[in-house]
Design a protein that fits this description.
By secondary structure, the protein is mostly helical. It has 2 domains: 123 residues, no CATH class; 116 residues, no CATH class. Helices cover 59% and strands 0% of the residues. It is built from 14 helices and no strands. The termini are far apart.
């Protein structure tokens, strides 16, 4: 609801002013979108607007405003002011390409890029439900010692096993959550037949539901250490050895 109200307000009468907007205006617009998406996702405020846009499947607002303005011009027969596009389909495709190029070349949100490399894939996955825990899984910003240490909120960046505690470590490797991970991987792998669990985590509705459950199990157990996922194995001495046993490899 907040997202819909925000976009409706921002898009109002945009054909009348987008051509006059300058760089500082677009920067303010993207900052406002970031604030709105932080409220919707309950993500940590350190999450970049680039990552939040992909996380929610929302086109960058500067691109969307220009798209909306161009669609209005096309609908009123003023295509001469849009030299490269003559139809609404062409301007929409051009806008998506612009977003994709921006996302691919960005240095921000690279953990989210592992989950969604193609913005069109994310836009098509309307069934994905993003909340506080899912946002941490998908952005890497959250209750991870490495990130908290980077922000000077933790004295050490490592987890109990001695490895750097990042989202890339906690979800696919950390042996403390082996049982929960096996349940998650059984569903994700069974639906996609792939070992790229980041990209397949939301590729189907059932995968998305399983990933959300897994994210909640892990992050809740980190928030309340006494509440561990059911039937967890004890922490092993070596994360790499445990990861190999999970994935069925010997090297």
């Amino acid at each position: 609801m907040n997202k819909a109200l925000f976009e409706t307000a921002m898009l109002y009468a945009c054909p009348a002013w987008t051509e006059r907007a300058k760089g500082k205006h677009w920067k303010s617009i993207l900052s406002a979108q970031q604030s709105a998406l932080l409220m919707v996702t309950q993500a940590y405020r350190t999450t970049s607007h680039e990552a939040l846009q992909v996380l929610t499947g929302q086109m960058p607002l500067d691109i969307k405003l220009r798209l909306q303005a161009s669609q209005w011009l096309i609908s009123h027969g003023r295509t001469s002011r849009i030299p490269d596009c003559e139809t609404e389909e062409e301007i929409t495709e051009s806008s998506l390409n612009q977003w994709q190029d921006r996302w691919t070349s960005s240095t921000k949100g690279r953990h989210t890029f592992k989950v969604w490399q193609d913005v069109r894939d994310r836009m098509s996955q309307r069934y994905v439900e993003v909340d506080h825990y899912v946002s941490q899984l998908c952005t890497g910003h959250g209750d991870f010692n490495a990130k908290l240490h980077e922000m000077r909120l933790k004295t050490s960046p490592t987890c109990e096993c001695g490895e750097m505690e990042t989202a890339e470590h906690v979800y696919p490797v950390y042996p403390k959550y082996t049982a929960a991970r096996r349940r998650w991987m059984a569903i994700v792998d069974g639906n996609t037949r792939t070992t790229n669990y980041w990209q397949s985590a939301f590729s189907k509705r059932r995968n998305s539901e399983a990933t959300k459950t897994y994210a909640h199990e892990i992050m809740e157990s980190k928030r309340w250490p006494m509440r561990q996922p059911a039937n967890e194995l004890t922490l092993g001495p070596d994360c790499a050895t445990s990861a190999r046993s999970i994935l069925g490899t010997t090297q």
